[in-house]
Amino acid sequence: MPPVRLHRVAVLVLEGAKPLDVGIPAQVFTTRASMPYEVRVCGAAPGLVTGGDGLSYHVAHGLEALEWAEIVFVPGYRFPDREDPPPAVVDALLAAHERGARLAAISTGAFALAATGLLDGRRVTTHWHYTRALAERHPLVKVDENVLFVDEGSVLTSAGAASGIDLCLHILRGDLGVAASNHAARRLVAAPYRSGGQAQYVPRSVPEPLGERFAATREWALHRLGEALTLDALARHAGVSARTFSRRFVEDTGYTPMQWVMRARIDTARELLERSERSVEQIADDVGLGTGANLRLHFQRILGTTPSDYRRTFTKGE
């Protein structure tokens, strides 16, 4: 069997880099049997980089790592609104993008990407505390403060540190499929998926027991996707009215309850297409969509492809 080709990931550590923002992509994509990635942590030059929050980093690579990488993560850093990164960093990011690398910012790393001009005219996000500063410093950037992450194809941005996990899992789903993404989420003890459109900051106070019940209800539903899951059934399990359940569910997940159920069904169908030889009709029945035609309809609507074409992307190398 030929060796598995490793996807190349660079994590660019700038002065004042935030520890969680650096650690998330480095840990998510670290090489292991289930993760065909190679990660290089780099800086403007090899050696010591002064970080934020009392930590510093000794990086083995300089900007040459961006010439090697297929994905470049730019973690957030302190005081991003004060000055742009060094010109050599901006030039290296531009050159990496021109070669076809994807650039992904976590939190205030979006400021570094904005300094390249690559975000002009694009929809982006950053940590809610800095959205206004980003819009003022880079007025051509379309800043959305109400989302967890934004995928614009060759450039991706995310909000605060925890949403960096959501962004990494989103990239994994695209690269390796939902099974690999779910496996990584379990290892990280993270939610398998949260909508990129979920609000990153909601100024409210939700009683903790209610949130616990909703988490339990989502888990309950995931084990019953083949059954008829209605809004009333979900609300009854959560112990609240259907109206209250719908409102709080959107706040918690970014989806309506039935949108979430449909996406859970499609994700489960994706995993079965990736890992089993069951027919489209069988999978449709397994995930509660009834017929292959119904599965194809929702698969196309949500993912923009067909179940058969999706399966081929995971079997063409076998």
Features:
318 residues; alpha/beta; two-stranded antiparallel sheet; 14 helices; 10 strands; 12% strand
| CA-based shape | globular
Q: How far from one another are the termini? A: 10 Å
- Average pLDDT number: 87
Q: State the helix count.
A: 14
Strands, count: 10
Quickly give the structural class: alpha/beta
The radius of gyration computed from the alpha-carbon positions, rounded to a whole number of angstroms, is 21 Å
Elements, N to C (H/E): EHEEEHEHEHEHEEEHHHHHHHHH
- Major sheet details: 6 strands, mixed
Q: What oligomeric arrangement do these chains adopt?
A: single chain
Main β-sheet, spatial strand arrangement: 2-1-5-6-10-9
Catalogue the unreliable spans.
Answer: 198-211
Helix content: 40-55%
> Strand portion, in percent?
5-15%
Any chance you could write out the topology, listing elements then pairs?
Elements lengths: L6 E6 L6 H10 L8 E6 L4 E4 L5 E4 L4 H5 L2 E4 L12 H12 L3 E4 L3 H7 L7 E2 L6 H7 L4 E2 L5 E3 L3 E4 L2 H16 L1 H11 L19 H15 L8 H8 L3 H12 L3 H19 L4 H7 L5 H12 L3 H7 L5
Parallel strand pairs: 1-2, 1-5, 5-6, 6-10, 7-8
Antiparallel strand pairs: 3-4, 9-10
Helix pairs in contact: 1-6, 6-7, 8-9, 9-10, 11-13, 11-14, 12-13
Folded structure, characterized:
The protein is of the alpha/beta class and 318 residues long. 47% of the residues lie in helices and 12% in strands. The chain contains 14 helices and 10 strands. It has a 6-stranded mixed β-sheet with strand order 2-1-5-6-10-9, sandwiched between helices. Strand 9 and strand 10 form a beta hairpin. The longest helix has 19 residues. About 4% of the residues have low confidence.
